[in-house]
């Protein structure tokens, strides 16, 4: 009896029971807590999709179809365009379109950001596509070189947007919009999704850092403090505008000067 009593009162027994209880509690928490958080996230995502579907049925379905399948005459399919395309198109006011045309211009935004996120969640549920970038992805940092961005922009973008993003005319009534005043997020999303006539540049073509470098270049060249080392920028529209000004004003000045010299010479001979 004394031996049995001594075993029951062994000083390590309480420590073993305590350690077992702590391990069991930690295991249960690790097993259940993530599932609870995941369930809450899934529930919130489902609610956002449901709300986005309601907004879509009122403002978008007449052109893009009730299930986003699109129409040959009214609007393209939205299956697989991703949430980034929705955030860009609706966040810049291009969608819903005011009227059909060769190109849909940017205008006043009619949806709040929360509603845009809900629309984006619904469209993303129709098929996989580029997602809305995070702030770290589209915000230029000190490591993102504006000079390198200028090289990338001149290689990939100047054919349409001009050398510093002032835009330009395209064919069939389309045009490349000016990029001054456009937010970094929308620039990034445009490169990612390729809206309207613009090609898309996935990360396999332009990495996230490359995109930030291009944004850094545009922000530097279009800032209020940006210098014009060549003199008057003439709207920064390129050599055509500069050549036109040269011909009209330069040649005009030469003609006026020639007439003035000839008139002075004629008077001198008469006198």
UniProtKB/TrEMBL annotation:
Subcellular location: Cell membrane
Keywords noted in UniProt: Cell membrane, Electron transport, Heme, Iron, Membrane, Metal-binding, Repeat, Respiratory chain, Signal, Translocase, Transmembrane, Transmembrane helix, Transport
Posttranslational modification: Binds 2 heme c groups covalently per subunit.
Annotated residues for binding of heme c 1: 60, 63-64
Principal subcellular localisation of the protein: membrane
Signal sequence, renumbered to the chain: 1-30
Catalytic activity: a quinol + 2 Fe(III)-[cytochrome c](out) = a quinone + 2 Fe(II)-[cytochrome c](out) + 2 H(+)(out)
GO molecular function, one term: quinol-cytochrome-c reductase activity
Recorded GO CC terms: plasma membrane
Source domain of life: Bacteria
Subunit structure: The cytochrome bc1 complex is composed of a cytochrome b (QcrB), the Rieske iron-sulfur protein (QcrA) and a diheme cytochrome c (QcrC) subunit.
Descriptive protein name: Cytochrome bc1 complex cytochrome c subunit
Taxonomic placement: Bacteria, Bacillati, Actinomycetota, Actinomycetes, Kitasatosporales
């Amino acid at each position: 009896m004394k031996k049995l009593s001594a075993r029951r009162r062994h000083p390590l027994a309480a420590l073993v029971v305590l350690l077992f209880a702590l391990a069991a509690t930690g295991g249960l928490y690790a097993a259940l807590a993530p599932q609870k958080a995941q369930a809450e996230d899934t529930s919130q995502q489902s609610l956002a999709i449901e709300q986005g579907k309601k907004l879509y049925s009122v403002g978008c379905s007449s052109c893009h179809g009730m299930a986003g399948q699109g129409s040959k005459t009214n609007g393209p399919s939205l299956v697989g365009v991703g949430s980034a395309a929705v955030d860009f198109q609706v966040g810049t006011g291009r969608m819903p379109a005011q009227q059909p045309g060769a190109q849909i211009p940017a205008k006043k935004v009619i949806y709040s950001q929360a509603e845009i996120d809900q629309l984006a969640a619904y469209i993303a549920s129709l098929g996989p596509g580029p997602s809305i970038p995070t702030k770290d992805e589209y915000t230029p940092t000190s490591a993102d070189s504006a000079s390198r961005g200028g090289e990338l922009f001149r290689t990939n973008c100047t054919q349409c947007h001009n050398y510093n993003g002032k835009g330009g005319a395209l064919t069939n009534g389309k045009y490349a919009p000016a990029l001054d005043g456009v937010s970094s997020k929308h620039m990034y999303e445009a490169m990612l999704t390729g809206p309207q006539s613009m090609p898309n540049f996935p990360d396999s073509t332009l990495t996230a850092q490359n995109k930030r470098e291009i944004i850094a270049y545009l922000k530097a060249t279009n800032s209020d403090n940006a210098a014009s080392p060549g003199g008057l920028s003439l709207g920064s529209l390129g050599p055509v505008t500069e050549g036109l000004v040269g011909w009209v004003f330069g040649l005009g000045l030469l003609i006026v000067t020639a007439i003035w010299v000839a008139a002075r010479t004629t008077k001198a001979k008469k006198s």
